[in-house]
Amino acid sequence: MDTLFGGTFDPVHLGHLVAAEAAAEALQMRVRLMPAREQPFKREAHVASPEQRAEMLDLAIAGNPRFAVERIELGLPAPSYTVLTLRALAAREGGNRFTLLLGADAAADLPQWYEVESLPTLADIVVFARPGAVVRRHRLIARVIEVPAVDISATLVRERVRTGRSIRYLVPDAVREYVAAHGLYR
Ligand code: ATP
Hey, whose CA ends up nearest to atom 28 of ligand 1? Predict the structure, then answer.
């Protein structure tokens, strides 16, 4: 049993990592951070390549035994539809049941997802939210967990790089160094 946490991760930041760690702890499961090749709702936002986003994830999770990076979507047709990803994982790892971790924002979009009715047969859906947040329950949602609120977005990180400001403490040091070394987001 592993938990999947998908996203663009352009780049991964401490908000993602704090949420993933809290989820790993609450669920007592390993969390695989899964970069999308291209997200159906966010086609304009990519600045780093899929492989660069995955490499930044590798750097970000180094040393955390609860975390792994799942690259399956990088080899699937874009855009990445979760149902198709879960089927590909089931084909690769028959017998492994997955939990799908979603932020409350993504959970709100659930009804519009491609083939959403097949989701429960493929994975248990767990939604995470900041303390006190109201999550609209949906019959597809198995559980809601609270994670500490960290008000960082990848948009903020990219914008700060673009305007020459510091991203120290917003992303892991190794990610900050990678962004600088590859000239990303300028
Ligand atoms: P962008 O600013 O480019 O839209 P983002 O920071 O929201 O990106 P994504 O890669 O789109 O990052 O996020 C993947 C998942 O991580 C989403 O489900 C989102 O809810 C969640 N997430 C993003 N930022 C945070 C945060 N600060 N705290 C908790 N969860 C977050």
Answer: 15
